[in-house]
Design a protein that fits this description.
Radius of gyration: 24 Å
Structural class: mainly alpha
Shape: globular
Distance between the termini: 45 Å
Strand content: under 5%
Number of strands: 2
Number of helices: 7
Length: 222
Amino acid sequence: MTSLDANADESPRAGAHVEVEEVTPEAAATGPLFGDPTGLGLACFIMGAVALGLSLVGVVPARALGAPLAIILGATTVGLIITTVWAAALGLSAVATVFGIFAAFWLSYFLLVTGLIRAWFGILPRDVTSTLELFLWTWLVVVVMLVLATLRLPVSFTLVFVLVALTVLFVLLGTIQASTGLTKTAGYCLLAAAAGGVYLFFNSLSLATGGKALPLGKPLLK
C-alpha cells in the first residue's frame, strides 16, 4: 500500500490521509478468470486422438468399437467442455469456438458408437454404413470449414486441422469402399495430428511457466 498525505496549502482538508492500493502484476493476474485454457484443451485433444488413432490403425480389433470410448468421453470430451467454458469466460471467442467444435465432435462420436452398439437409435444393421457416412460427411464439412476459417492462425495450427480433416476424409472413404487400408491411413493421420498437438502443448506450457514461445510458423493468410 502507498500513502498520499494532502498538503495544507493545496487543500482545506489538511492532514487528510488517503490510501491508494498498488496494483501489481501478481495482484492483477489472479482470480478465476485468468490464464490460458489452450494447454488443457490440447492435452485432452491429444488423449482422444491417440486412443482413436491407435484403434484405427489396428492396435485393437475392428470389432472392439468401444475400446477408446472411456478416454473419449471421460477425458477428452469432459476436458474440452471445461476448456470451452474457460475460454468463453475469458472472452476468447476463437479459442472457445475451436475447442467447442472438437468437444462436439468427440461427444457425437461417443454417442454414435455407443448408440450403434446398444441399438439406441433404432438403426437397422443394413443401415449402419449409411449412418456412418452421414456422420462423416457432416464432420468433414465442419472440419474443412474450420481449416479455412482459421488460416490467420500460425501454420502449426493449420497443419493439425488439415490432418484432422484428412482423418475424417480417409475414414469416410474407407467406410464407402470397405477398405481397411484407408482406415489405417486415417489412423496415421490422426496420430500425426496428435503429434502436432504435442508440439503446440509444449508451446502453451512453456509460455505458462515463464519460458519462451516455440516457433509456430507464419499464418497462411494475413
